[in-house]
Amino acid sequence: DAGVIQSPRHEVTEMGQEVTLRCKPISGHDYLFWYRQTMMRGLELLIYFNNNVPIDDSGMPEDRFSAKMPNASFSTLKIQPSEPRDSAVYFCASSLGVGEISETQYFGPGTRLLVL
Amino acid sequence: AQSVTQLDSHVSVSEGTPVLLRCNYSSSYSPSLFWYVQHPNKGLQLLLKYTSAATLVKGINGFEAEFKKSETSFHLTKPSAHMSDAAEYFCVVSDPILTGGGNKLTFGTGTQLKVEL
Questions:
Q1: Cis peptide upstream of residue A70 (ω within 30 degrees of 0)
Q2: Which residues in A lie closer than 8 A to residue B96 (C-beta atoms)?
Q3: Burial class (CB in 10 A: 0-12, 13-18, 19+), A81
Q4: Local structure of residue A60 (DSSP, 8 states)
């Protein structure tokens, strides 16, 4: 398997613009997670899905952020409108499920977002 | 709530000398613990994972970690550092109690490892 795939790898945009980040999880994984990494706050869980259904979005910073998972092989994280403080690295991760064997999360390479 | 504390934000070693990255955890349950590594401008790669099978866990690239319940520690070690080990290392605890199932990872603040010639 190719692992978790994220696109784009880098995104530079201007304040107020819409940004869409994309993720393809590992085939067969039931859980998908979106994280944000910043110098100030480290790695934070934003939202996660189980079988395409959002389970916990308590980490989403505000209404400008939204995430969808229309099918088992694709998820998006959208920021509209974007602000400079959204600049960060956004990671997507997937896991097979619960339990000792299957709980390991595998991370994508991340999308580096810069909002000017 | 579960948490991890990485005791050193930066560690510097000479190539060929041992590496010790310290991590303490807090958990109400029998935890799953991980170490992830992040090389500059790269994603997070799993180094090793502790569940409950063995307290000494061997990972990739010669790293290992020992789970010590009495000390609530999960320190990462390597006998001999290599230049390619220079990266940021994250200690992570897994919380199995989540709405709808699944597990939530709580990350430490990271330790930046520098390897000098």
A1: no
A2: 98, 103
A3: middle
A4: -
Q: Which of the four pLDDT bands, split at 50, 70 and 90, describes residue B41? A: confident
* CB-based contact A74:A23 (threshold 8 Å): yes
Yes or no, beta carbons of A105 and B105 under 8 Å apart: yes
Alpha helices, DSSP H only, in chain B?
Answer: none
Q: How many CB atoms lie within 10 A of CB B100?
A: 13
Task: Give A41-51 pLDDT, tens digit per residue.
Answer: 889 999 999 99
A58 vs B: CB within 8 A: no
Residue from the list A42, A53, A56 with its beta carbon closest to the beta carbon of B107:
A42
Q: In this complex, is the C-beta atom of A104 within 8 Å of any C-beta atom belonging to chain B?
A: yes
Contact A91 B49 (CB under 8 A): no
Residues A34, A49: Cα–Cα separation, whole Å: 9
DSSP E strand boundaries for chain B: 3-6, 10-14, 19-21, 23-26, 32-38, 44-50, 56-58, 64-68, 73-78, 87-95, 104-107, 111-116
